[in-house]
Amino acid sequence: MHDVLPLIQKSDFPPIRRRAVDTVQVNLGYRCNQTCQHCHVNAGPNRTESMDATTIDDVLAFMRARDVHTLDLTGGAPELNPGFRRLVVEARSAGVRVIDRCNLTVLFEPGQQDTAQFLAQQRVEITASLPCYLEDNVDAQRGKGVYALSVRALQRLNSLGYGSGGDAPVLNLVYNPQGPSLPPPQHALERDYRTMLGEQFGIRFDRLLTLANMPIQRFGSMLVSKGRFEGYMALLRRAHRHENLDAVMCRNLVSVDWQGYLYDCDFNQMLGLPLRVEGRPRVHLRDVVGHDLVDRPIVVRNHCYGCTAGQGSSCGGALAA
Q1: In the chain, at which end, N or C, are there fewer CB atoms within 10 A of the end residue's CB?
Q2: Per-residue pLDDT tens for 242-299?
Q3: Residue ranges of the domains in the chain?
Q4: pTM strictly above 0.90
Q5: What is the edge-to-edge ordering of all strands in the sheet holding 125-129?
């Protein structure tokens, strides 16, 4: 795999600073039942990294010490971590909103047969990957048969109340472009998703979130191999909108890796660019439980243009209408 960090290291991305942390995004490990072309984590079935019980305790202690509103769980497939359910239950008991970034097909893995019901009982918000509403496109990006299994998973979640609106548990879908291009307008694409998935399969969901592909890890390496890396970076830079800087997720989020170390975002985590605290090469959750992170500079490189290009892109979808 090509190392893209040297290609983005020299950066003119505008400097930004952190606000108060209200969201903790936790990567529970890189093990996944899928191997997707656009994956910026390089996750897959052969990865063994997994957050242990002690580090999960550190996550909970960090959250209790701060006014954290949201726990955002990711991976890999976060559900495959043995401590996933304990972390969810304790966070929900403390009144914290929990998001599970679910690839949908994991719900049919051995030992996961009751995971959908567990998520519904805990009223966990599901943000589910479905990078297109067309079967051929999904299977080309995520593997043969993934689309059909994803549809079955969405129907199962609907049967548990997900996507019904009102006080029902929230189900959001995530779109990624097939290649080195910007996502189309989020609202228009959401209408297309509702029409196609609703008419064909009776599927309901709350929102569609459009995410730009980050030029790092597996996707970045593919661009380098095909000689398209520089062209994609040029596209992101040309499409930069300064007003998106105010809403990028790193302003009020910290990212935690499977060992408990802190980063400004999940993308920086995958590049090995730790959250910056004076005198420390990298910072663990335990090091900052009682420390204020407000107004600290955020580590930026040229991949950050992926978050500010066009309508903008973050873990919550488009930043601008």
Answers
A1: C
A2: 999 999 999 999 999 999 999 999 999 989 999 988 778 899 999 887 778 899 999 9
A3: 5-308
A4: yes
A5: 207-210, 171-175, 125-129, 97-102, 70-74, 23-27, 253-256, 262-263
